[in-house]
Amino acid sequence: MENILSMIGLLGGLFLLIFLTMKGVNIIIVGPISALFVALLSGMPLFPQLVEEGVPNFVTNYMTGFTGFIMAWYLMFLLGAIFGKVMEDSGAADSVAKFVTDRLGLKYAVLAIVIACAILTYGGVSLFVVAFAVYPMAISLFKQANLPRRFIPATLGLGSVTFTMTSAGSPEIQNWIPIPFLGTTPYAGWEVSIIVAIFMAIAGYMWLKKIITKAVKNGEVFDARENDPTFDTTRALPNPFLSFVPLIVVLIISFIFHDSLKQSALIIALLAGILATFIVSWKYFKSPWEAVSQGTLGAIIAIGNTAAVVGFGGVAKATPAFNVAVEAMTNIPGSPLIGAAVAVSVIAGMTGSASGGQQIALPLIAPGYLDAGVNAEALHRVVAISSGALDSLPHNGYVVTTIQSICGEKHSAAYWSMAATTVAIPVIGVILAIVLFSFGLGIQ
């Protein structure tokens, strides 16, 4: 009976998390409310004063998950957000995006936006900042091409949170979290990663084009709004080739130091990228110190949103139902990689966060799998790719921010096309990765 109530609490808490988020309630409020629901139905004591030291309770477990994630990743979030903001304020991000779109033309407006997002994301710019930076140009291109604007979130998502976010070498934290748990590098399983990334990019783009073309044939057109951002065509922008320099600096520095400093290499890489942006684009800045301040505030909001769902996971994983679910997922017959993919995907889906899902799942599954002889590089890549699949359910922070806050769309209009590019495609991608690793590709 205890396990049944706990499972009802776990599933009910997840439903509440999704429902309240879709209703527009702030995730920082939704996280603890949903976690409290889980705790109450699981019979978990609410306060540490009511139990002996070390015994699970709502406040301790929630805050341990919340603060633990911030302690581990705050500097990466901070520097990533500041890097993105100085790239935006200096015009370097616009210069890169314009360089790509000018060469592809209006006929390939969707592809241009996907590539611009991919370059910025793989260069280390925060996912949220990429969406903010590219959105004005996306509006401009969709308006000129007369394409339905409800597909802009799916286009931004395809370029930001699929084939770039979880690929080998990516500076995004979703590729770096497995490193301390598995003793790997950010380039783990790179051979398979390249194949999967190419598949996700091509398949995602073809699917997106197909559903946009179908909508256009059904009579959908661009719907202009008074508050639409306009791309400033009169502003002087830095040389596009110079604008690429900070992105290249981030990649090179992270490569040089990843062996010695592991995930801390990202701190040096992003700091170097910020300095490089100031050096190559200084005279083009509008308000550099304001950009730093905005980046700092953005980092606090972004990591707070993620930590809120990690805190939810901290309560959830202390319940009897969670342990039963994880045991079932990690004992799926067949390849251990399948169990890892399912476990990480489901937990990332429950928490609405790829990074949060990894942070919760890896301490539970990594030791047993490594002891069983599972290849660490294959496990790293499968975990990274699978974390970017079910995480993009409606309550995901990036999804909510991109659809509602940045693009001003409703979930009912924009989410399903976004689910096609950010959920379905990565799910197929992780299946492909498991198949390739099972045939021995990329395993030394």
Automatic annotation (TrEMBL):
Gene Ontology CC annotations of this record: plasma membrane
Protein name: Citrate transporter
Signal peptide: none
UniProt key word Phosphoprotein: no
A GO MF label: gluconate transmembrane transporter activity
Sorted UniProt keywords: Membrane, Transmembrane, Transmembrane helix
UniProt xrefs under PANTHER family: BLL7963 PROTEIN (PTHR30354:SF7), GNT FAMILY GLUCONATE TRANSPORTER (PTHR30354)
Organism: Tetzosporium hominis
Transmembrane segments: 5-22, 28-47, 59-83, 108-139, 151-168, 188-208, 241-258, 264-285, 297-316, 336-354, 413-439
InterPro entries, per database record: Glcn_transporter
UniProt lineage: Bacteria, Bacillati, Bacillota, Bacilli, Bacillales
